[in-house]
Design a protein that fits this description.
362 residues; alpha+beta; Rossmann fold; nine-stranded antiparallel beta sheet; binds adenosine monophosphate; D-amino Acid Aminotransferase, Chain A, domain 1
Length: 362
């Protein structure tokens, strides 16, 4: 089922697959617009369930749990891209599922994703599928000894990656060391900066985008997002146009995150797409009237989209692991919005919260 005419009535339940911080912030936005939420997540008392009206504690592909979620919900969405496609397809036969399961299929596999992007005229890093040491040796020699080897599936925050720089050695065993799964070697992009665009498409096909954020990663995890990004107006506009082309090609409904490498000549390569609200869009909570979370709820509920305009310039920083001990000191600063995710244990590498500093637009 893909179309439910008219806006979702107030009081309807929105189903959310995944119970992390993104689900939590979606539940908050849904509540503000008068909706109820039900979360499907195997971990009890997860960040999203602390704020949702209901949690179904079960695996994401549990047929009985999916049927229960479909029965409760007027529309179902998800907060992470590794929702099993079969589960999303099964749900879509019973209830509207946004974004469409096709977006999951494309974003779950780097090879499928790059072919899709190139197929609609969007540039990416050069890439070669790698299914053996011999494939790797030949791909590395094509790329002059440098490249980033990645698992096609299930990599995130820099996990499942190996960097080769001017490599002339023996790759024997490298394929098995990555788990013996399908891999992709990407050419090593010497980008000037990394930017991302958060964009949305409504059920009526309307489009909106936020200004690009400039992202800095540490140890493969997003550290900060600064808006405006230090790119030319033409590059910013190109990023938005690329995001809109992706949304239209997927007949998408909801918010999408598109990550780019910005090159010195002003051109862009898409690194990856995330069919969901995105960490590099958290700044919109503090610097825009309509946040990415509300924008997603508006889109899937058939409400008018916000226009994406920002009232402030902003810098968002993640609080990872023990960084969360900074919370009290941060609260003493003016023009700072702190957001904690309700996670009990601050393990290394775990996203515990974020904060956004705003200042008047330059
Ligand atoms: P990913 O998991 O694909 O988002 O990669 C994590 C980070 O690794 C990116 O944000 C970049 O900083 C870096 N990276 C990934 N792929 C490449 C590439 N082909 N060339 C240069 N840097 C890359």
């Amino acid at each position: 089922m893909t179309s439910t005419p008219g806006p979702l009535p107030t009081g309807s339940t929105i189903g959310i697959i995944g119970g992390g911080q993104l689900g939590r912030m979606l539940a908050m936005a849904a509540a503000r617009l008068g909706y109820r939420t039900a979360v499907l997540e195997p971990q009890a008392d997860c960040p999203a369930a602390q704020l949702a009206n209901r949690q179904i504690v079960a695996a994401y592909d549990d047929p009985a749990a999916l049927a229960e979620l479909a029965g409760l919900s007027a529309v179902v969405t998800y907060e992470f891209e590794n929702v099993p496609v079969a589960a999303a397809d099964r749900l879509a036969r019973q209830v509207a599922v946004f974004p469409p399961p096709k977006a999951l299929e494309v974003s779950q596999d780097r090879l499928v994703e790059k072919r899709f992007l190139n197929g609609i005229g969007i540039s990416t890093a050069d890439f070669v599928p790698v299914d053996s040491d011999a494939d790797l040796a030949s791909a590395l020699s094509d790329f002059g000894g440098s490249g980033v080897l990645k698992t096609c599936r299930l990599g995130y925050d820099g996990k499942g990656q190996r960097l080769f720089r001017d490599f002339a050695g023996d790759v024997d065993g490298a394929y098995a060391a990555m788990g013996g799964v399908p891999l992709i070697l990407e050419s090593l992009v010497s980008f000037e900066r990394e930017i991302s665009v958060i964009a949305a498409r409504g059920r009526d096909g309307s489009l909106a985008a936020y200004d690009p954020a400039e992202n800095v990663h540490r140890d493969g995890i997003l550290h900060s997002s600064t808006v405006p990004a230090a790119v030319s107006p033409a590059t910013a506009e190109l990023a938005g146009r690329n995001a809109f082309a992706i949304l239209e090609a997927l007949d998408y409904v909801g918010v999408i995150g598109v990550e780019f490498f910005a090159l010195a000549d002003g051109s862009l390569l898409v690194n990856e797409i995330a069919p969901r609200v995105h960490n590099s869009g958290h700044w919109t909570e503090a610097a825009c009237a309509v946040s990415q979370f509300e924008q997603h709820i508006r889109a899937i509920a058939g409400l008018p989209l916000g226009d994406g305009a920002r009232h402030s310039d902003s810098v968002m920083e993640n609080l990872i692991g023990d960084d969360v001990t900074r919370a009290l000191a941060l609260l003493a600063e003016p023009d700072l919005l702190l957001h904690l995710y309700g996670k009990a244990e601050a393990r290394p590498g775990r996203k515990m919260g974020h904060f956004t500093r705003i200042r008047p637009r330059a």
